[in-house]
Amino acid sequence: MYEWNEMVQRMIDWVEEDLAVSPTLLEMSRHLGYSPYYCTRQFHALTGITLRDYVWQRRIGRAALELRDTDARILDIAVKFGFSSQEAFTRAFLRAFKLTPHAYRQAPKPIPLAIRAEVFSPYHYLIRERDRMRQVHLQEAEIRLEFIPAHKFIGIRDIGSNNYGGFWKNGHDCDEVSGTLESMSHHTLPGQLGQTAGWFYQEGRKGYLYGILVAADYDGAVPEGMECRDIPESEYLVFFHPPFDYLQDNGQVMRIVEEVAWNYDPAVMGYVWDEEEKQDYQRHFPEGYGYAVLRPVRKLD
């Protein structure tokens, strides 16, 4: 049923392996065993964009990060990502971000980078594997303390949502929000993974948030439609599961961690929850970090 989700995801993976020299549509179609026309039609149907435009957007976005993070010549970056000249690169950059590569390098600001497409999810995997599911024993959630210094949260807080899926269905553009935050990744608070989700509490209601943690003294730009909020220093109880296979085990791992996180009594460790002025955070990086829910606590009086 979802055969093409998996095949288009393979096309995306091949492109992402090396954006500078990604395989051609003809090469990918031969590997998949379908015509180039049919492959590109299915790619567009599932991603909403042509393969050519996807490659272009990802290349210009990766080039922007190299402008921001390296001292390489603009011409060398242009050639590396497949542009015929610095002039062609400048025209493309202007079209994508409304400023020149030189201007961006001189003063990097939040810009809407295209993010990696994902069209083959754990849901699709479970449908494919439902008749031959394996039995896997996943470990219990680990619990530990972690101190996070005072910081700023830049992002969106939505009191009308209380989970990841509901947040994106509630009028927020995942590609635009995630891409803009990706362009701010160099400001990430040390010790954090980058973009984070989580929960906040307002007048007895629980809302959902998505954004990035930056240093407390950050005084740079705040993207349009996002807020910048000061969060005090705190200890956090971290409910954690180590790296796992995203497609096979994501749902089960999240259930294991959240079952403990939302039912744990911190008094066992001499703490109480401290979520009035602070926020709960999620860390979700399956293959590299794992999954965690972080809830702020303070010592019992």
UniProtKB/TrEMBL annotation:
<keyword id="KW-0238">DNA-binding</keyword>
<dbReference type="InterPro" id="IPR011256">
    <property type="entry name" value="Reg_factor_effector_dom_sf"/>
</dbReference>
<dbReference type="InterPro" id="IPR050959">
    <property type="entry name" value="MarA-like"/>
</dbReference>
<keyword id="KW-0804">Transcription</keyword>
<dbReference type="InterPro" id="IPR018062">
    <property type="entry name" value="HTH_AraC-typ_CS"/>
</dbReference>
<feature type="domain" description="HTH araC/xylS-type">
    <location>
        <begin position="9"/>
        <end position="107"/>
    </location>
</feature>
<keyword id="KW-0805">Transcription regulation</keyword>
<dbReference type="InterPro" id="IPR018060">
    <property type="entry name" value="HTH_AraC"/>
</dbReference>
<dbReference type="InterPro" id="IPR020449">
    <property type="entry name" value="Tscrpt_reg_AraC-type_HTH"/>
</dbReference>
<protein>
    <submittedName>
        <fullName>AraC-like DNA-binding protein/predicted transcriptional regulator YdeE</fullName>
    </submittedName>
</protein>
<dbReference type="Pfam" id="PF12833">
    <property type="entry name" value="HTH_18"/>
</dbReference>
<dbReference type="InterPro" id="IPR009057">
    <property type="entry name" value="Homeodomain-like_sf"/>
</dbReference>
